């Protein structure tokens, strides 16, 4: 964690065009239960599919559109903070570099977890995701044979680790558009990013059922 903080701090302050605070500094400085207003457009690739419809809870989703039907409020604080901070990075190349930093800092996934049941379908690269439910909170781990994809997985883990199952399941995929990945990764990587998130939601359901 210290290495991740130093890497992002260095990236943020060594580039003259970006003078914002570091990602981890902002996360630690905000109260867990504050409720910022973070509104983001819903991209076409994030529209619910038949495949993912079983993941949608029978209660309103977190919405990023003001006044949307069923909106229950803004994103969870830690998610909003990470999305907003990552979006502040002005250059797509710098975002790409941050993803590589996150990949290097990601905790290693044990070899025994590199199994078919943990693979994310619909990704350009091989990706494995695990989830555990402890003390009312969700905890995720992931790995990939691509450093860039591993960075995307790490970004999702930063967002979702420590949330309650309800918070994870209430997240609408539209929040992914707030990262502003256009120009940093290819459309196929963006689609894989969405599939990783859907897999984490599915594994959240499985982990709670098996708890």
Topology overview:
Layout (H helix, E strand, L loop, with lengths): L1 H13 L8 H7 L47 H12 L3 H14 L21 E8 L2 E8 L2 H14 L4 H6 L16 H24 L1
Antiparallel strand pairs: 1-2
Helix pairs in contact: 1-4, 2-3, 3-5, 4-5, 5-7
Could you provide a short overview of the structure?
With 211 residues, the chain is mostly helical. The chain has helices at 2-14, 23-29, 77-88, 92-105, 147-160, 165-170, 187-210, and strands spanning 127-134, 137-144.
Q: Can you tell me the overall shape?
A: globular
Q: Profile the largest sheet.
A: 2 strands, antiparallel
Structural class: mainly alpha
Strand content: 5-15%
Overall pLDDT confidence: 75
Strand order in the sheet with the most strands: 1-2
Low-confidence stretches: 1-73
- In DSSP terms (H or I, runs of 4 or more residues), the helix count works out at 7
**Share of residues in helices:** 40-55%
Distance between the termini: 28 Å
Tell me the total number of β-strands. Answer: 2
SSE string, helices as H and strands as E: HHHHEEHHH
Radius of gyration: 16 Å
Describe the structure.
- There is one protein chain.
- The chain is mainly alpha-helical.
- It is built from 7 helices and 2 strands, in the order H-H-H-H-E-E-H-H-H.
- The protein has helices spanning 2-14, 23-29, 77-88, 92-105, 147-160, 165-170, 187-210; strands at residues 127-134, 137-144.
- The chain has a two-stranded antiparallel sheet.
- The longest helix is centred in the C-terminal third of the chain and has 24 residues, at 187-210.
- The two termini are 28 Å apart.
């Amino acid at each position: 964690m210290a290495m991740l903080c130093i890497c992002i701090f260095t990236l943020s302050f060594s580039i003259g065009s970006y003078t914002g605070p570091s990602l981890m500094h902002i996360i630690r400085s905000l109260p867990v239960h504050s409720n910022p207003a973070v509104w983001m457009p819903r991209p076409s690739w994030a529209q619910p599919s038949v495949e993912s419809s079983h993941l949608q809870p029978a209660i309103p989703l977190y919405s990023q559109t003001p006044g949307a039907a069923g909106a229950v409020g803004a994103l969870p604080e830690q998610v909003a903070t990470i999305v907003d901070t990552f979006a502040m990075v002005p250059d797509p190349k710098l975002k790409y570099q941050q993803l590589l930093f996150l990949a290097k800092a990601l905790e290693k996934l044990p070899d025994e977890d590199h199994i078919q049941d943990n693979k994310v379908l619909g990704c350009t690269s091989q990706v494995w995701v695990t989830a555990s439910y402890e003390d009312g909170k969700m905890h995720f781990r992931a790995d990939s044979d691509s450093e860039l994809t591993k960075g995307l997985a790490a970004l999702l883990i930063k967002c979702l680790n420590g949330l309650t199952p309800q918070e994870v399941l209430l997240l609408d995929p539209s929040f992914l558009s707030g990262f502003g990945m256009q120009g940093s990764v290819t459309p196929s990587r963006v689609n894989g990013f969405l599939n990783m998130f859907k897999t984490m939601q599915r594994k959240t359901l499985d982990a709670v059922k098996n708890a």
